[in-house]
Structure formats: C-alpha cells, structure tokens
Amino acid sequence: MKRLTKKFILDYARHNIGGLSDTSKMPCYSWSISADLCQMGEMLAKIDGSVCSQCYAKKGNYLWPNTVKAHQRRLDHYLSDSRKWREDTLLLTKYLHRIGETHFRWFDSGDIQSAQMLSDLLWISERSPLKFWLPTKEVSIVREHIRHDSIPSNTVVRVSAPMIGSNKTANLSTDHQQIADAFVDVEDTDVFQCPASSQGNKCGDCRACWDTKSVSYKLKVK
Question: Averaged over 27-46, what is the pLDDT?
C-alpha cells in the first residue's frame, strides 16, 4: 500500500465513499449530504422559530456548485452499494486514526435517511478507533433503533430540540446512555454552553459534542 498521507486518505475517501467534509469550525473530518434531504428538517424549516427555520446548511458555502455535487456524490456512493460503502468507510476511519485523527462527525449537513443508514453508521463506529458524534432530528428512526439494538460507547447520538429557546426534546436521552440532547439558545444551568461563538466560531479544544452532556448552541442570524 502507498505511504499513508493525508492526500492519499482524501483521494481514497473521494473514490470510495464520495469524499469527506473539512469544515473550518470542526476539529475533525465529517461526512455529509444535502440539507434538502432532511426529512424532519424540511418540515421544521417551514415553522417559524424552529431550529431548522434558519438552517446554516442552506446558506453560504453549502450552496456552492462543488459542494452540491459533493453531497450528491456521497449519497450516490452509499445508495449504490451500502455494504461496500460501510466497509470502505470503516477502513477510512482506521487510516485517519493512523495519522493522528481521534474524532469524526456524521452530518455537518443533512441527516439520517433511513433505519438502515443509521444501522450502517453505527456498524462503522462500533468497529472504529475514532469517537463519533451524530446529530439528528430523526427521532422516530433513533427510537426504533434502540428498541432492538444498542449504540456503541464511542458514539454520541445527539437529538435536537425542535424549537429555538426550548429545552423540550423527545427525552430519548433517558432511554439510552449514548443519546444526548441538543438545544439552541437555552441557558439552563445544567446545559453546557457551546463556546464556539466566543472563540472565532471554532471548536478549539472543546469536544463536548462527543460527550453525553446536553449542549446548547448559539443561534447565528445572517
């Protein structure tokens, strides 16, 4: 095998799983698809005051033609052969770990498309040396999964409250220790406040999103 370099890994990712996202905020790579494919998110986007009504993933760089093509390419790779895709993705995470990466995010845009997709993502994380964060609004898919299967200890599935300023969620965090809550503009004392807004909109050294604590994010209006 060729020498394991970042270029080799990114080329491997593009060829085998459609590529990776490398967003400026995140301390790690991620895998994403178009926010237009969010099922629950598309319904919430039509409701004033919902966390999806001002979706960041439908603005700015996410609208660039290259980004749109990349999102579709990733989904096409998954849909064409999901078993091969998950095996290739697992190998990719092991490559990333070998060059010093420790964390990974599913969906810096987009969301789970099906129960099978969630199962595939958790299959990967269960066998991977990385730590995973999976934010989602697809409560019904997550609820169905935990009825008959578990979530690996290296993975946090973070379920978002639907409304800005509200701490009301589906309470799935009480049903499984690897499920955590996410809020927007909630300042309860028992909720961790995302520090990104005070440090250049970057995670910096913070890794709270990969922990099982509740996290509240600041709303950015543009």
Answer: 96
